[in-house]
Amino acid sequence: EPAPVRAVAAPRPQPARPEPAPPVERPVPSGPPIPVAIATSGGWAQVSVDGVGVGNTPLRVPLAPGRHTVVLVPGSGGAPIRRTIEVGPGHSNRLHVAL
């Protein structure tokens, strides 16, 4: 007599892992450079924007729309002052720092 057949549950399929979403790319603002006024009170400062020296305060410097890092080094000495600015429509396009 043949051996009894035992029912075996079929293996459950593993749920498919979702594909990772591609990184979201923020659009890079474009457009002509916009003049940005950079000024200080309490003395003057050497100014660099995105690592490039642009002059001493007060000054106006044309910058492309978008985010920029401004570093001011007080002429009287002291620690550099770092600011991040957003340039473009809807932003003040001015930076004033008290030294």
Characterization of the model:
With 99 residues, this protein is mostly beta strands. The protein has a domain at 34-98: Immunoglobulin-like (Sandwich), CATH 2.60.40. The chain has strands at 34-41, 45-49, 52-56, 59-63, 66-74, 81-87, 94-98. The protein has a 4-stranded antiparallel beta sheet, with no helix packed on it. It has a 3-stranded mixed beta sheet with strand order 4-1-7, with no helix packed on it. Strand 2 and strand 3 form a beta hairpin. The termini are far apart. The mean pLDDT is 86.
Sum up the structure in keywords.
99 residues, four-stranded antiparallel beta sheet, rod-shaped
The poorly predicted ranges are: none
User: Radius of gyration, rounded?
Assistant: 29 Å
CATH class (first level) name of the domain at 34-98: Mainly Beta
CATH topology of the domain at 34-98: Immunoglobulin-like
Largest sheet: 4 strands, antiparallel
Proportion of beta-strand residues: 35-45%
Order of helices and strands: EEEEEEE
Structural class: mainly beta
Count of distinct strands = 7
Instruction: Please state how the strands of the largest beta sheet are arranged side by side.
Output: 3-2-5-6
CATH architecture descriptor name of the domain at 34-98: Sandwich
Distance from N terminus to C terminus (CA atoms, Å) equals 100 Å
Please, what is the average pLDDT? 86
Shape: rod-shaped
Number of helices: 0
